[in-house]
Amino acid sequence: MVISKVEINGLYVVDINRYSDNRGYFERLFCDDHLKRFGLDKKIVQVNHSYTRKKGSVRGLHYQVPPYAEM
Q1: Which long-range contacts (CB under 8 A, 24 or more apart) does 19-22 make?
Q2: What is the per-residue pLDDT for 8?
Q3: Strand, helix or coil at 12?
Q4: Contacts by residues 29-32 (CB-CB < 8 Å, ≥ 24 positions apart)
Q5: DSSP letters of 21-67?
Q6: Cα separation of 30 and 56, whole Å?
Q7: 18: part of which helix (H) or strand (E)?
Q8: Pick from 32, 24, 26: which is nearest to 3 by CA?
Q9: C-alpha torsion sign, points 16, 67, 44, 49
Q10: Prediction pTM value
């Protein structure tokens, strides 16, 4: 997610990073950590979107341990 200020005060452009491969794609549409830096304090923590081309595919399984784990 890349957030850029524009000339209008209080207006930002949010570009979403899409991660694609032969199975489909994944993108984070909303991330509390990124948007708080710009004064956007909402109750939604994170919104992700993914698309999988092939029925029966397994995606996104991972295991994280501190200090690299997400909350």
Answers
A1: 22/53
A2: 92
A3: strand
A4: 31/1
A5: ETTEEEEEEEEHHHHHTTT---S--EEEEEEESSTT---------TT
A6: 27
A7: strand 18-21
A8: 32
A9: positive
A10: 0.52
The radius of gyration computed from the CA coordinates of the chain, to the nearest angstrom, equals 15
| pLDDT for res 12 | 83
Evaluate whether 51 touches 29 at the Cβ level (below 8 Å): no
Residue 43, token pair as written in the block = 């109750």
What the block records as the tokens of 21 is 């491969």
Could you give the 3-state DSSP secondary structure of residue 13?
strand
Structure tokens at 26: 């994944």
Distance in angstroms (rounded) separating the CA atoms of residues 18 and 13: 16
Under-50 pLDDT residues of the chain: none
Whether 25 and 19 have beta carbons less than 8 Å apart is answered as yes
- In one-letter notation, the amino acid at residue 21 is D
